[in-house]
Design brief:
With 397 residues, the protein is an all-beta fold. It has a domain of 203 residues: Porin (Beta Barrel). It is 2% helix and 53% strand. It has two helices and 21 strands. Strand 7 and strand 8 form a beta hairpin. The longest helix has 5 residues. The model has no long low-confidence stretch (mean pLDDT 93).
Amino acid sequence: MQPKLDGRYKLGNDREAYASLSVGATQTLGSDAFDYRNEGEVRFGSAALGLRGKASDWTYDVSFGRQPFTLGTGMLLTAGSSNGYSWGGGASAQRKTWGRSLVARAGTGEWTGTAFALEPDEAPEARTETRVQGVALEWARPQMGKAGLAWFTSPRSQAIYPGDLAPLVFIEKGREGLDTWHGWADITGLLPALPTLGFRAEFAQQRNDITRADGSRDPMKASAWLVGASWWAQDLPFAPKFTYHVARFTGDKPDTPTYERFDPMFWGNGLENWWFGANGAYSWLNANLRARRFIVDAYLSAQDILQFQYVRAEADQLNSAVQFGQGVSFTSGGLVVGVPQAELSDEFYLQYARVFNPKLIAIAFVSRSNPGAGLKANAPQGTTAWTTLGVGLTANF
């Protein structure tokens, strides 16, 4: 539950101050996916002040405090708060606000420039003390889409990276000093003959220097990208929308001194964006990953919507850390992390949504993940499929 209060105060014809305040309460009954049992917490959500207005042909908006912020579509910066752990609510992931933020926007026409400084609100078990600051430029047109380019850096962070023998060897403060270039484009209607055909492309490039456990310094060169297309066949029965995405997040090559494992940072923003599967979102954390995703949305009526997803997950680099790097196997050559074969899982997801009205929406879903050859090769005790059932009700008052 999250009661929220929003307020505005006019300072003139072209300027106003605004504020938001919310308190979020979560509770897990039983255990979650990571075996935290009966955990919950009541914490502030939003607690922010801002000023926005117009000056000639320009608009401006400056805000600070605890508030949500998403860069682009959420590839790297969107999940500003921890979910799960001792705070509970890991399955619903309702907390999103950044613990501290300063965001300044200025725009004219279809262009908006943004400068930001962010610090996440992290549970004690997941605290990284990360600070992110950067700038972005975005073009957006209603009914068509958006495109943008951003640069940001992490001048401070305690976040660790998996090393050559994770979890036996970690790279301390791996994120500190990380520089990232990030670009995105999500456009529909480029072809007049196919007005509902959409294209999507995103990339991220990361550079840093990391310090190994033995004190040696090595360069970090990591990258990620996604390309996709969608088509909404509005003239067909049930107006189906078809979407296909291919994505890659680099893993660390075992035979090079360069560190290539991608850092997904504070990623998220849903199953159509950076959660690759309802189960995969907990398992494959957008590092050392290749994903293919096929989505079909069918509109049985204006209020009844079905969605099917298929997600194929594979490791980008064999014998390299997957997830947090905790999978270690013994071979004739010694300890090896990661998986010896690329296939990680095949996930099938089916969801039904009922829109009673814009403020009351119910969903029910089932998701099944079948382990791939890579997991089976690392589990001599055998593997089982992971099935998740869920129901949800969102009510805004």
